[in-house]
Amino acid sequence: MTANAPEANTEELHVTTGATVWLTGLPSAGKTTIAYELAGRLRAEGHLVEVLDGDEIREFISAGLGFTREDRHTNVQRIGFVAELLARNGVKALVPVIAPYADSRDAVRKRHAENGTAYVEVHVATPVEVCSERDVKGLYAKQAAGELTGLTGVDDPYEQPETPDLRIESQHQTVQESAASVHALLSERGLA
């Protein structure tokens, strides 16, 4: 009889230090584009990564919510809960969400702190003039034509973070440079 050869280990090695990277900013600031660029880089290094895109969350987890201050707060808290759950289980949760109100973002940060989960806030500080030129979803055009009200940063408030962990001015650098800035901060904090 011949001995069976040991089974080859086909599992991929993953880095299991979780963290939430919350990218806040105006519509069309570049949050989602930066998040996906960063996600690719982190995955290539062996990290488990999920991008919690605000539009997808609204469709699947926060369906039925409107854009009142209360509904926006509820939406941000739901996203924050899912992000913290993923992060505490070894996933890098990248969260490109407008999250216009400081108190909502602070509550998410507090939830992470209470659970000892790493949290990094990145303000993608693209000026409204640049965002309206990019107008990825046509929101600024609709607002200008009177077809849309309550556009964050135009006729609805956006409370900029006073002390984010990182501020990116995406209009002055490439997407790759923006993602590299976030990656550098994560590395500095032992998270990448």
What's the N-to-C terminus distance?
Answer: 48 Å
As for the CATH topology, it is: Rossmann fold
Average pLDDT score: 91
| Strand element count | 5
Coarse shape: globular
Beta-strand fraction estimate: 5-15%
Class by SSE composition: alpha/beta
| Low-confidence segments | 1-10
The number of helical runs is 7
The largest pleated sheet is described as: 5 strands, parallel
Which assembly state applies to the chains in this document? single chain
Query: Within the largest sheet, what's the order of strands?
Result: 2-3-1-4-5
- What is the gyration radius calculated from CA atoms? 19 Å
CATH architecture: 3-Layer(aba) Sandwich
Report helical residue fraction: 40-55%
CATH homologous superfamily (4th level) name:
P-loop containing nucleotide triphosphate hydrolases
- Reading off the top of the CATH hierarchy, the class is best stated as Alpha Beta
Order of helices and strands: EHEHHEHEHHEH
Number of domains: 1
Name the descriptors.
7 helices, Rossmann fold, single chain, 192 residues, five-stranded parallel sheet, 13% strand, 42% helix
Structural commentary:
- The protein is of the alpha/beta class and 192 residues long.
- The relative contact order is 0.21.
- The longest helix has 20 residues, at 69-88.
- The chain has helices at 31-44, 54-60, 69-88, 102-114, 128-134, 139-144, 175-188; strands spanning 19-24, 48-51, 91-96, 119-124, 166-168.
- Helix content is 42%, strand content 13%.
